[in-house]
């Protein structure tokens, strides 16, 4: 099993502060990996040797216990028998077998003892090697720590020196910058004063020229606006006159269409009345005789509407149209621009109920 010291030793420390001077980080990590791998292998060998030694120790203890038990048995057998019957050949063979067994166990115990001695030597060697590796690692770690501390101190000293030099350089630069700033401000104030005077004179001249030019442009714009207003007024009057004439023309055309539609409606109404008269006469002519009309009322079939004898289809009458389209009068010139013709009104189709159905 891994000891408390091993747990504190592994894994090895790998985090170091980066400095300007020192060992190569990759080489250090590679060396630490190699050392850690060797250390782990040594620890594994040590644990295996210790486990083997423990096993051999248990076997040796068992062999010693067996030897003691057999020695006690041999001593019991070596005692003189109390009776003559005990000295038989069987007992002698038993004693011989016990002695041979004891010799065998003694040989095994000696072999186990030799193995134990060898494992003890191996364990001692591994322990010594382990201690040497630990001392080597501690020395390397101490050397690395010392070098890191020295490099850190050197870096701090260099940084302190650079900081002092930078502060002195900054002070000198601040003094030089302040001197240049004052010189530039004086030159700038002088230049700005001269430019301000020239600019004020230029602005005054520009104001005078702009005022004259603005007055001239206002006069030109006023004349141009008056001319445009006159032209727009004349054009608007002309457009209104054209629109009024177009609207009157469209209104006359619409009235003519309405009159034509009214005449067509009257003609259709006359034709419908004539068709109704023809249907009425046809119905009276198709009325069945008295002998043909005697039928069983309980099983009477529904009476079909009279059909046209010529076409063989139901006769329907059409009611006259109930609404006549009146002419539309345009109220504004814009309405005259809509060049749309009024659709002719269609007579409403209404089927006329046959006279036979009314009698029923």
TrEMBL record:
Highest rank taxon of the organism: Bacteria
Keyword Cell division belongs to the record: yes
Keywords carried by this UniProt record: Cell cycle, Cell division, Coiled coil
Protein name per Swiss-Prot or TrEMBL: Cell division protein DivIVA
Coiled coil regions, renumbered to chain: 46-80, 127-165, 204-267
GO biological processes: cell division
Region (Disordered): 323-360
């Amino acid at each position: 099993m891994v000891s408390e010291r091993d747990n504190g030793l592994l894994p090895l420390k790998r985090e170091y502060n980066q400095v300007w001077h020192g060992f190569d980080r990759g080489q250090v990590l590679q060396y630490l990996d190699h050392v850690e791998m060797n250390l782990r292998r040594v620890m594994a060998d040590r644990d295996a040797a210790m486990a083997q030694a423990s096993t051999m120790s248990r076997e040796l203890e068992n062999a010693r216990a067996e030897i003691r038990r057999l020695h006690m048995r041999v001593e019991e057998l070596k005692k003189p028998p109390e009776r003559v019957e005990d000295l038989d050949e069987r007992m002698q063979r038993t004693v011989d077998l016990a002695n041979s067994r004891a010799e065998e166990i003694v040989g095994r115990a000696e072999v186990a003892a030799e193995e134990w001695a060898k494992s003890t030597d191996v364990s001692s060697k591994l322990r010594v090697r382990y201690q040497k590796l630990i001392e080597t690692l501690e020395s390397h770690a101490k050397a690395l720590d010392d070098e890191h501390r020295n490099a850190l101190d050197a870096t701090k000293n260099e940084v302190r020196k650079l900081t002092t030099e930078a502060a002195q350089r900054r002070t000198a630069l601040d003094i030089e910058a302040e001197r240049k700033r004052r010189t530039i401000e004086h030159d700038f104030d002088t230049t700005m004063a001269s430019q301000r005077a020239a600019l004020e004179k230029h602005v005054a001249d520009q104001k005078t020229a702009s005022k004259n030019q603005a007055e001239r442009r206002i006069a030109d714009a006023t004349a141009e606006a008056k001319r445009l207003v006159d032209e727009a007024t004349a054009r608007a009057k002309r457009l209104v006159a054209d629109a009024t004439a177009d609207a009157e023309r469209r209104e006359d055309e619409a009235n003519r269409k309405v009159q034509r539609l009214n005449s067509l409606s009257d003609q259709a109404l006359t034709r419908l009345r004539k068709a109704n008269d023809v249907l009425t006469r046809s119905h009276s002519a198709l009325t069945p005789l008295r002998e043909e009309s005697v039928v069983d009322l309980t099983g009477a079939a529904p009476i079909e509407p009279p059909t046209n004898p010529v076409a063989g289809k139901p006769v329907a009458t059409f009611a006259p149209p109930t609404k006549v389209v009146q002419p539309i009068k345009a109220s504004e010139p814009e309405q005259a621009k809509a060049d749309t013709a009024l659709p002719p009104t269609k007579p409403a189709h209404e089927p006329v109920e046959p006279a036979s159905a009314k009698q029923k």
